[in-house]
Amino acid sequence: MRRGEAIMHTITRGAACTVSLLGALLPALAAADGGVTLIDVAAGDQAGITYRRVPSASKAIFDAIKNDPPYTQEKIEATPMKSHGAPGVAIFDYDRDGDLDLYVTNGPGAANSLYSNQLRESGELRFVDVATAAGVDATDQDSTGVCFGDVDNDGDHDLLVLSHNSPDRLFENQGDGTFLDVTAASGIAASGVRVSSSCSFGDVDNDGLLDVVIANTYDNWDHYRGINVEPFALNQHNQLFVNQGGNVFADASASSGIEELAGFPPEAAGAAGLTWAIAMVDVDLDGDVDVMAADDQAGIPPASSVLGVDRGMLHLWRNDGSGQLTDRAAQAGILAPGAWMGLAFADFNCDGNLDFFASNFGDYTPAMPILEQPSRWFLGQHDGIFTDIGVGDLGTTLFGWGVSAVDYDNDGDTDVIYHGGLDVGPGLELSNGGVVLQNPDCSARFTVDFDAVPGFAANQRRVVHGMATGDLDQNGFVDVVSVANMVIPESIALTPHQPLGSPFDPIARFFLSFDPDPKTGELVWNGSTFDDGTLAVEISSGGNGNGWVEITLLGTIGLAAEGRVNRDGIGAVVRFRPAAGRWVMKPVLGGSSYASQDALPLLFGLGQASSGTVDVLWPGGVRNRFYGVRAGERLVLPEIPCSYADAGLSVGEYRDCVRRALDDLEAAGVVDRTLRRRLLSSALRALRAERTAGPGGHAGP
Description:
Distance between the termini: 47 Å
Helix content: 10-25%
CATH superfamily of the largest domain: YVTN repeat-like/Quinoprotein amine dehydrogenase
CATH architecture of the largest domain: 7 Propeller
Radius of gyration: 24 Å
Number of helices: 12
Number of domains: 2
């Protein structure tokens, strides 16, 4: 059954049948004692946040359809996709003043927002929108996703802003609070206009320059046929642009292998998927970034159905180290059809392997059996295969877009936060007001912390798309920023979903925009209208007694003679262990959440420990370790291009290599005398521990 048909079936069953329209949202909301709450400081235009997402131009098409009853299957297919837009958000320090700022995309005729955090200037968490003055308003386009990275290795973050049916735009940070649009010369727009959703920076060929992958969808969001009718014909390939230096990129999409997808039937060989999220991440921990994409099955029946075909799967392109990519999703055990929409990465069960969480369509829907498309987590194994363990005691999960893997309560393991509202022609899926999935004792058996989001009910009325995390108020606890494309007024009553025996049953809600005509049974618009979308800035209360450290990486290409890693350290994998605790792991990502990017500084929880150890796997394979990180420290750790795990270096050669690098970094003003001593001491200690462990016995994670 197609999505549109399933929704129509639900509507015609009447309000008494409280089943969902087209979706399901959220995975894991059980009672948990996180001891922190997330409070929206932007509600009611507070804290200087006045963002409103204006609709896309295609809303006029939907308005005409609504006012021309009845609403038939043919009109569902002619209904625009995301007519209120598909906004994303990025959290980054654009002006290098030491606090995190926000970039939020908007629709045609409305400026995108660059909210400058005033924390360092005033001591108060307030924001000023400087997008127009900074030159990144992009008022003339319908912006979608966004990602950032130091493309030219000059020490500041550049910005890539995606669009719906107009060129994606690259803005070079000038270092003075302004940006320069370098799209025309960059080559990113040279391959033609596509309908882009998300992007991710990473160094695919390990040359020290950030490359970028762009996730694309289907040819035109002015209709729904790419969702419900055509499995492949309308889809657009994702793109890989390789940085040539000087802000110039070469399109390596065809030559790299990223256009070759596993799992399609022979008749669809060479076809593209419909991708909502994409990530450049070192999945196999071999020192180079791989690429993972989250594709959408949407309304196309899967191959397990009569006349169905699998087209919406998770894809994993392994990197051979040179930038050549091969889709190994089948071998990795993740080639599962679903409505995949967002990705987040961490070691959820503390076994030393990278795991991931993927948001999906969820379970509250009549179109699919329970647990066919749940948002869920996959656990990495030592053999490179992922285990799909389902949703555990949660039973069912909810729909989701944006997702982030963070230790929200700083207890020493990695939790999951994800958001998502679904807007389609017939109605809205509104169950997910921002779920916090707590990871008890690094077990990867997630429960739900309902108490963490007091504003959950208000958030349910926000149809959230993009979401990102970072420590905005610098209290050591992660905050959550989410952007909605529209808001359902309080005057409109939401309908409970049919219970499924899940912890989510009490909060699962939907709304139908069309009702059966009492006489004909045909569907007619009920006159419902919605408000423009808003931005929520949910600040963590902290204060639960758990300690923390913040780690920011600095690649030293251009700073140390032997430095090889991009300045942002994107693509590195960071492990952290509290004293007497277990190793946890987080990659430094240039984007993975739907249409959005988390802040680059990584927060690690200490629990009750007072110190911990950091271990970094840099792009290229160099390993550094830093001991004695103290609770409450915010450290910038530079790449030292000398690996304690390099058995080919003698003790003397290793020591000399470290000292040369530290000489360069001290001369460049990157490290002071105190940090230099700590870095040198840690480097030598790491080598001793590695050599003591002996051949094949890794001293650490």
